[in-house]
Design brief:
The complex is a heterodimer of chains A (242) and B (263). Chain A is built from 10 helices and 4 strands, in the order βαββααααααααβα. Chain A is mostly helical. Chain A has a single domain, classed as Up-down Bundle (Fumarate Reductase Cytochrome B subunit), CATH 1.20.950. In chain A, the strands form 2 sheets. Chain A has a two-stranded antiparallel ribbon. A two-stranded antiparallel sheet of chain A has the order 2-3. In chain A, α3 packs across α6 and α6 packs antiparallel against α8. Chain B has 2 domains: 44 residues; 189 residues, Sulfite Oxidase, Chain A, domain 2 (Alpha-Beta Complex). Chain B starts with a helix and ends in a 19-residue tail after the last strand. The chains are: A mainly alpha (242), B alpha+beta (263). Chains A and B meet through β1, α1, α3, α8 and α9 of A and α2 and α3 of B. Chain A: InterPro entries: Cyt_b561_bac/Ni-Hgenase, Di-haem_cyt_TM, Hydrogenase_cytochrome. Chain A: GO terms for molecular function: electron transfer activity; heme binding. Chain A: It is found in: Cell membrane. Chain A: One of its GO terms (cellular component) is plasma membrane.
């Protein structure tokens, strides 16, 4: 029998969808800033493998000569990024939702099994709650990365007034490298995230908009109580929990 | 009284109906909010440029945000927060020259006749020679000069502390005002600085670089070194100094940059 199961809280969904465009704007405006001193690349034995970023990339996205504009956007949307992130983190801490998010002692072992399953190497997947082991690691990491972006951002934004943050980030140069690397990290996260969401299907996607998922369950399972939100059933739940 | 009655008569929704109803409501709300966000973004993107004045060149709402953000972060400013200094060996031997506005475009400039012009409160102008400035105690600094573009370089400068200069030449009354304006002799490059940055103990009127007299392209005979600001505020070849309670004109703030540009 089909059953409605609550999955994501309104606040989690809200902050998720606010973060998406805000982060996109931060990356876009960040490119305007980075362009003015595009010092980074990856090279091995003096051979440049990747230059961040090639000319065609800048031209395609109309990046060049927009430093002032980039800073103006970046220093407005940083507020939204920060407040939205703070909202999510506070909610997750105080609601207890962190229990379903943070990796536990089995997560690192299990994450391999999830990966093998996703790559169709393994048939079964370890039993999971709201997030599987790989998701716990990935979604906790992305929150830490967000915090990292705020901290390294402050370090390069006000390296004199927040000299101790700058010091914590390993100095002005290293803070800028970290700030940049985190951004590259978001892009990789995004790509994998999109593929995973597409593979996970409609039920999973709908949950991040509507909050619930539909599961097939036999009637006597305790989860069933959550379907009908009548007062009687709430009482039942209370009794069972007691 | 009637409504609860009516409800009881309605058949309870099937699971399928509940799914559809909740999905419809959620996705409708999602679409409306997305549309609103997109409209807001379009509004910002197409917002008119600010009215050109002391600041110019950026969208009006973004300028308001820059100014508000400045006010917030100025709460953290303290003259006790010193810029990190380095051993003199680490200083660049040939410091980078990034811009020559106010220098390359001034062919009439004669360094032998240079005098600093200070606009006083009584509307008179005081002229100060480089010898008078060099007679004051010299302060050296080796620090990481930071450009708004994102590069930085450890550089070695020496000159008189701006705060010492103001006291010595009895400019304390002038310096009570909220801003100082500096300009090149030809007025092609100009900056405005708040009082707190002027009085920062590491802010110098510099006349030496790497232990030698400053070269022309680095701002001879006298330039500003203000380590709590990006390079754009470190005016080379100071010609005029003035004081006011309103923001003085600022070259890069007219090009869309943050007026404050503090570090």
């Amino acid at each position: 029998m089909k059953v409605i199961k609550e999955k994501h809280s309104l606040l989690m969904r809200w902050t998720h969808w606010v973060n998406f465009p805000v982060l996109a704007i931060m990356i876009w405006s960040g490119l305007f800033i980075y362009w003015a001193n595009d010092a980074y690349g990856i090279s091995i034995f003096n051979v440049t493998l990747i230059k961040f970023f090639p000319e065609w990339f800048y031209n395609y996205f109309h990046i060049p000569q927009r430093l002032a504009e980039g800073m103006a956007f970046h220093f407005l949307f940083m507020w939204f990024f920060f407040i939205n992130g703070l909202l999510y983190i506070s909610y997750t801490l105080f609601s207890g939702a962190w229990r379903e998010l943070l990796p536990n002692k089995n997560s690192f072992k299990e994450a391999w099994l999830v990966l093998l399953h996703d790559l169709h190497i393994r048939k079964t997947i370890p039993p999971q709650k709201k997030y599987n082991a790989a998701q716990r690691i990935a979604y906790t990491a992305i929150i830490l990365m967000g915090m990292g972006s705020v901290i390294t951002g402050l370090a390069i934004y006000k390296p004199v007034q927040f000299y101790w943050i700058c010091w914590l980030c390993g100095g002005y140069h290293f803070a800028r490298i970290l700030h940049f690397a985190l951004t590259i990290g978001y892009v990789f996260f995004f790509l994998i995230h999109i593929v995973q969401v597409a593979l996970a299907g409609w039920n999973n996607f709908r949950a991040v908009v509507a909050g619930f998922e539909v599961v097939e369950e036999s009637q006597h399972l305790p989860e069933q109580v959550t379907i009908q939100k009548t007062e009687e059933n709430n009482e039942n739940t209370a009794q069972k929990e007691a | 009284m009637k409504t609860p009655h009516k409800k009881k008569l309605k058949a309870p929704l099937t699971v399928e109906q509940k799914i559809n109803r909740r999905s419809f409501i959620s996705f409708s709300a999602f679409a409306v909010l997305s549309g609103g966000a997109f409209a807001g973004w379009k509004w910002l993107l197409n917002a008119p440029e600010e009215t050109a004045g002391i600041t110019a060149g950026t969208r009006a709402p973004l300028r308001r945000a820059l100014n508000k953000t400045e006010l917030f972060f100025r709460n953290f400013f303290s003259n006790k927060h010193l810029v990190k200094t380095y051993p003199v060996e680490q200083a660049a031997k040939n410091p980078r020259v990034n811009s020559l506005i106010g220098i390359e475009d001034d062919e009439d400039f004669d360094i032998t006749r240079w005098k600093l012009q200070v606009k006083l409160n009584n509307q008179k102008t005081r002229h100060i020679t480089i010898e008078e400035i060099k007679a004051l105690p010299k302060t050296e600094i080796v620090y990481d000069f930071k450009c708004v573009e994102g590069w930085d370089e450890i550089q070695h400068w020496a000159g008189v502390k701006l705060s010492d200069f103001l006291i010595h030449f009895q400019l304390e009354n002038e310096a009570e005002k909220q801003y100082m304006g500096l300009e090149t002799p030809n007025g092609a490059y100009y900056v405005g600085l708040e009082r707190e940055s002027i009085l920062h103990p590491q802010t110098l009127l510099a006349y030496e670089m790497n232990g030698k007299t400053i070269s022309t392209e680095h701002g001879a005979p006298l330039r500003l070194i203000v380590p709590v600001k990006y390079g754009i505020k470190n005016l080379k070849r100071i010609g005029k100094m003035s004081f006011s309670n309103n923001r003085p004109r600022d070259y890069w703030a007219e090009q869309g940059y943050d007026y404050y540009s503090g570090l």
